[in-house]
Amino acid sequence: MNRQLQIINFVRNILGCTCPEKVFRQIEDREVALSSSPHTRCITIGQRLLIYVWNVKETDGLKENLFAMLEAGGKQRDEQGLNRFRAVLAVDGNSQDIATKVQSYFARYAGKDDRIHLHVVSRAELEELELQDT
Hints:
The chain has one domain. Strand 2 and strand 3 form a beta hairpin. The protein is an alpha/beta fold. The chain is globular. It has helices spanning 3-14, 62-80, 95-110, 123-128, and strands at 27-31, 41-45, 49-55, 84-91, 116-122. Helix content is 40%, strand content 24%. The longest helix has 19 residues, at 62-80.
């Protein structure tokens, strides 16, 4: 499966995005190195959707790192005039434990901004799609 189809599958089937087909004609996917946010991948789709992927390896500083990621993504979304920002956290094992914790942090951060979404997925799902670093 080519890279573009992998990303479309990820966005539609894992994140549940219902963007029309025409949005997926333009996909920018890049790795991010050393930023103030913990994400390691940035995907922009159709000049409408921004996705950051963070490979969560440890939970120390989870709240602060999540807030940094949400802040950076919200800022980039607004600066580029995009419609939505989806923050994706890839975790090992039982993602429910981390999901519960980060959802409470996210609720406090996002407030009434309904254009920011948070997803906690298993690292295995992203590895299958080759969407994360190892």
